[in-house]
């Protein structure tokens, strides 16, 4: 396996996951701020690795597999950390919607790939907007404290509601695209 820069960035995103998690196991002052920095850097690699791979012609099957896995793990672990830090019904609901959608769509893509129809559930613009809102919201929630009087956590929670709505919308788009094959398989 040839590890080029785009793949190394994806691997670095996977390596960031235990760091974000581990920061919340410490008593470091401003651990949420440090976790946000690591999370933000990992989020930037999500965009950068794909852009570089396409631009430089360095795409690979392993990179195409690992990239969405890294994203989903980073999001899921971060949401679990947030829920542990501030348990509550609203955040629990949003975490369940987002993580549930990721599992559903991943399983749907796997099944569609087995049928040879993976392109009918390819990432679309709704999924890209969902990811943008989700990553911004999670970063703000990890930060957790006001920033120059701006209620970062509250804004992040509002953005997570937008991300959850986009999450449901994108899942419905994927399910609708797969419905003809699902109907024929039953």
From TrEMBL:
Signal peptide: none
Keywords: Lipid biosynthesis, Lipid metabolism, Membrane, Phospholipid biosynthesis, Phospholipid metabolism, Transferase, Transmembrane, Transmembrane helix
EC number(s) given by UniProt: 2.7.8.5
Reaction(s) catalysed (UniProt annotation): a CDP-1,2-diacyl-sn-glycerol + sn-glycerol 3-phosphate = a 1,2-diacyl-sn-glycero-3-phospho-(1'-sn-glycero-3'-phosphate) + CMP + H(+)
Transmembrane segments: 7-26, 32-52, 150-175
InterPro entries with a match to the protein in the record: CDP-alcohol_PTase-I, CDP-OH_P_trans, CDP-OH_PTrfase_TM_dom, CDP_ALCOHOL_P_TRANSF_CS, Phosphatidylglycerol_P_synth
Compartments (UniProt record): Membrane
Catalytic class of the enzyme: transferase
Name by which UniProt lists this protein: CDP-diacylglycerol--glycerol-3-phosphate 3-phosphatidyltransferase
Protein's pathway: Phospholipid metabolism; phosphatidylglycerol biosynthesis; phosphatidylglycerol from CDP-diacylglycerol: step 1/2
GO molecular function, one term: CDP-diacylglycerol-glycerol-3-phosphate 3-phosphatidyltransferase activity
Highest rank taxon of the organism: Bacteria
Mode of membrane association: Multi-pass membrane protein
PROSITE patterns per UniProt: CDP_ALCOHOL_P_TRANSF (PS00379)
Gene for this chain: pgsA
Family membership: Belongs to the CDP-alcohol phosphatidyltransferase class-I family.
Lipid biosynthesis recorded as keyword: yes
